[in-house]
Structure formats: C-alpha cells, structure tokens
Amino acid sequence: MLLLAAIDAKYTRHPFFGSRRMVVFLISLGYLVNRKRIQRLMRILGLAGMAPGPNTSRPHPEHKIYPYLLRGVDVVRPNQVWSTDITYIRLERGFVYLSAVIDWYSRKVLAWRVSNTLDSSFCVECLEAALLKYGTPEIFNTDQGCQFTSEAFTSVLIAKGIAISMDGRGRALDNIFVERLWRSLKYEDIYLKSYNSVPELMLGLREYFRFFNTERMHQSMGNNTPVAVYRTASGGGARIVDKYLMKEEPQPESGKVAGQRRAAALPATILNSTPFCLD
Which residues of 63-84 are buried (b: 16+ CB within 10 A; e: fewer)? Predict the structure, then answer.
C-alpha cells in the first residue's frame, strides 16, 4: 500500500512517468524494487506513462479505434465537447477507481461514478447519467483504454449520433482537462483527507465536486465557476494546439525577389567586394 500511494502521488504530479522512471524514483526514496514489480503495481492502478508503447490503456485488439477529432479545434460553447477518464483513488485499507465526464468549454463535472474494478460498466453508467441530465454533446473524447473502446461504451455514443474522438498514442495533452481535474481533486481533497472507506469517500467526492462546480473559480475562465460558465455559455473555451503540424509551404518567388532575398542574407564583406550576378 505504501508503494501504491507513492506511485499514485508521483504519477499525479508527473503523468509522463513510466515504469522505468518510477523505479528510479522509488529507489531514491529507499524502496528496494525492480521494474517487473512496478509494472505490476502500475497495472493495478490503471496507470501508464504518456508515451507510445505497451500499457494498460491499450485497446482490446477486436475493438475499433476512432481518430482524434479535436486537434486545432476551437471549443466555443457548452456541450460541444465532453470527455471522460478513469483515475485511482486510494483508501486507508484499499483502493477504488473513479470515472468522470467533464464539459470542455466550462470544465464542469457532469457526472461521476466509483467502482472497485476496471470493467466498463461503471464508465457506461457514468456516461448515461451525464447524457440523461445534460443532453448530448457534439463530440465525446476518451483515451484508447479497453473500457472506452468497448462496444458497450461506444454503442451508447453511436445511438445518440455523437462523434467519437480518441486520444492519439503518446499525446499527453489530448485529454488535458480531465488530467487537470484529477490533479486538483487529489491535491485539494484526496491526499489531505485520506478516506477510510467507500461510503466516506462517496460523501467526500460529492462535496468536492459540488465545490469544484459551484465555488472553485478558474483563472483561465476569468475567475468564474464551471457552473456559471456552463449556464451563461460565456467566459469558457478550449483549444488543443498541434505543435507538430507541418509549417505552410512558402509560395514560389519571382527570380528578382529571390535574388534580393539571397543578397540580403549575404555578409556585407562579400556584397562590397567582387562584382557578381545574382541571377
């Protein structure tokens, strides 16, 4: 349990840590561990470093994978984009998993569910609760974990006519708003209170998400709360910038313009010495 707690806290701060880096970190704390053991513990937590390669978010081989639809897209209204994810919650004598659905425009938590297993049923229940209360989004984004690529989950979205988007492999920022929610939840509530039991945790989560939605002001949204931004449809927004996009190819230049550009780039000592022809 001490190792699980240490891994969880470190991963929350640095979600790009894979098993190799985690081993080095734990050894620096004085734990005698090897990579095989840490891989097993990270599987228990449902954690994987944000990098390409084998991990617990790998989809089932028979499940369909959908493309990522949000790169470079401006999110300008509530219910345009929702997303979901799963995180591990440690208790005094065990652990559970938490799933939540969040609206990208307002950062509002629309629904959440807790489970003691990583099966897809509690993720589907969370999704259906959000759809029942808030209607349907235009796009729904998830990672490529088997819970979200399963037919049980995607069929709900398809039946509602919702476009399905899935994070790219090794793209740490594709679902950044849910990752930020997990970080806020753990550092502002979970790590401070150390819940003993599931009923106690459920009460704590209910209070925290009420606080997060109705009282916690977000600097990126003009110090407004998610509920206020969602209700008024103003002050929010999001955009995932793709820094890997190829730069636009320059237009062909005329011979004269190209010659002038090359001349401007030449050292002055050359330009002022031997006469030469640019074209």
Answer: eeebebebbebebeebbbbbbb
